[in-house]
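Lab manual, section 2.4: Encoding a predicted structure.

Procedure: take the sequence of the chain (613 residues), apply the prediction step described in section 2.3, and record the output as structure tokens. A sample record is shown.
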Amino acid sequence: MKLKKALSLLLVSAMTCSLAACSGSTTTTSQNAANTDNAADDTDKAADADSAAADTDADQPADTGADNAAGEDVKEADYSDVVPDETVTLTVYSQLSNYEGEQIGWFADILKEKFNVKMNIISNGDGVFDTRMESGNLGDIVLFGADGDEYTRAYQNGMLLDWNEDDILSDYGPYIKNHMAAALEKNEAISEGTVYGFGHDVASGAGQLDEISYHPDIRYDLYKQIGSPEINEMEDYIDVLKQMKEICPTSDSGKEAYGVSLFKDWDGNMVMFVKATATNFFGLDEFNFGFYDPDTGAFEDCLEEGGHYERCLKFYNKLYQEGLLDPDSLTQGYDGCMEDYQDGGAFFCIFNWMGATQYNTVDHMNEGKKLLPVAAKNQDTLVYALGQGGSNRIWTIGSKSQHPELCMAIINWLCTPEGRLTYEYGPQDVCWEWLDNGKVELTDFGMDCKYLAAKEDKVMPAPYTGLWDDGCPQMNNTTWSLNTVIPGAADNQTFNAKYWDKYLALDVDEAEKEWRADMGVDIYDDYMVQFDYSPSLPHTYAETAKSDELATRWEQVKTCIQNGSWQAIYAKDDSEFESIVAKMRSDADSYGYQECIEWCESEAALRRAAEYQ
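Recorded output:
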């Protein structure tokens, strides 16, 4: 597709501009010999790059203020009139959080100092949303995992605060109003004409692309030891991981090692790891009971025979049959999976934020061990274009909150550069600071906390308490995208410290040096754009409310697909796998799968029409 080719150079340019702004130099994007087939395609992509960037800018909403002077954008707001005399505990119901209980540590200290509040976080277990709806009170700050059925039910039943009521947005959310106008407009458009909040990962300007978050990371030290075998297709990783286990059969603690470790906590309409693998390797975006093709706008249902969901399901079953999938994946939960990667008990991960961040400790890197990206030659990865309208994880305030002004002031602060940087890195002037040149930089302590030091060494200095890791915000939502330009910062600097001077100047470990020499690049995204990928464009789409009958069928189908998929992953052989998948299709049809798919196809057409082409 022309747009897909055109945006390839735009992504490279965006990453290079970030690097140039932070370091004063660009990085090489030369390809290694194994990827010469992609070089000619990159030349084709370059031809349309300028027009693609112009088209993307033209079709996005007007700029929301990223170019304002730093002094205007980063000055501290006055929250004194909403700060209570006595400490208030706010209930934060977050459908995105893995945490339950009171926020602790340095972030709690900052909230207490600035707003005299404590936060009690409620996560989203089975039945929690319905229970809270029935109670008539969702909470003070309410964070939705999507702008779909539950969000719609909430505002239609009067459970969310109208942000324009009594001028609460103007009076207590001025930064949001002045800098996130497009995000507010999008929320108004999807909420029947009322503003109840805004979506996550807002872009401060048009034409910006997100970091590539899907890429296959593997133990590069082991990959080199087995001779760096060629990987052309997703299925080729199976033999690679098998060879790795042969030379490294146990984890650091002596437990059996595996190729992958999974968890089911985040399963939705499909098994999360299965659908995300299709996003990683085939450029498809998860969409209800299937996938949305960003190139064509076509919908592919997840139970299509020979489809991408079945192919990825078979991939994990093959790993299981070969003894390469942790057999505790179904029951261990998120924490158990993270422990596996921390312990070196799994060698492969499809998320850049998961396996590598757990395994790549100072101790492992000093031993020459590291998870690093090694892509399949023929893969096609989904990359998200950033939108000024934000995405689908919604920040809202509960209509029954006794402290709506205070909630708005807190969310407003989290949208300021200070608030977003503090949320990501820690307290200002302790973990990060503004420089005289109008840019932002991590302090040495902040660098240690975010990237370098072991957890037990990240002790917060007075007046803060505890360890840095333990004090990180537990709401698990974002305001500005980490990869968008900081409003008011010099040289189009983004919020992502991996592209700031200090990080780029770090000495790299031996495994990283070897990877850079082998791949001919210094930056992971520069490596990944050598391969095919598909950009998912920003849009104003929000799903249509389902009828009660369809919603009932939907839940039955969802349970059927989740259970059937896990049973298929654990099938003992190919015959049993095929039998389980066939039964899953049959059972899903009996529950009303085809009616669900008709709805999905209609929704895909609505999404296509709502994209900024």
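Check your result against the sample. Residues 489 and 497 are 13 Å apart (CA to CA).
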